[in-house]
Amino acid sequence: MTRQTTIVTATPERAMLGNIRSALQRLHKTLLDAERIQYERAFGRIQSEFQLLVLATEDPQFAWLKPLSTLIVRIDEDYLNKEELVAADLAAIGAEIRALLAPNAMGTLFQRLYHTSLQETPDIVMAHGAVIRALPPVKSEDKETE
């Protein structure tokens, strides 16, 4: 079977997408590290990266991180190899990220636990800020509808 390769042109939009993706990955790792610490306090040391991977994908304590993991994978699948990446694509990604990363003590499970994590861990605050700074600015007409 022959694999077809798409040639992707470097553009400012693609560079911004790369920055967004990197910032999201750092945030995800920071959240995962914080959750690992909580897990190890309760259940003892995680013995290997493989064990952490299994926990991150199967243990209920880590399940709240799935929306962020899923979003990163979707960015990879939907946009990373897209031939033409345009400003509207970045605006859509930005809106989705802003909605997910809206800490809310009364929101979705992710938003509630994210809110708590931001209150407890300065590294998460820093990683959150990096993601927000990487996003395209919100246009004024978009702000009016929020």
Quick recap:
By secondary structure, the chain is an all-alpha fold. The protein contains seven helices and no strands.
Can you walk through the features of this model?
- The protein is mostly helical and 146 residues long.
- It is 70% helix and 0% strand.
- α1 runs antiparallel to α3, α1 runs antiparallel to α6 and α5 packs across α6.
- The mean pLDDT is 89.
Order of helices and strands: HHHHHHH
Helical fraction equals 55-70%
Low-pLDDT windows of residues: none
Proportion of residues in extended strands: under 5%
Question: What topology emerges from the helices and strands here?
Answer:
Blueprint (H helix, E strand, L loop, with lengths): L11 H32 L5 H10 L7 H15 L6 H14 L8 H12 L1 H13 L5 H6 L1
Keyphrases for this structure?
146 residues, 7 helices, mainly alpha
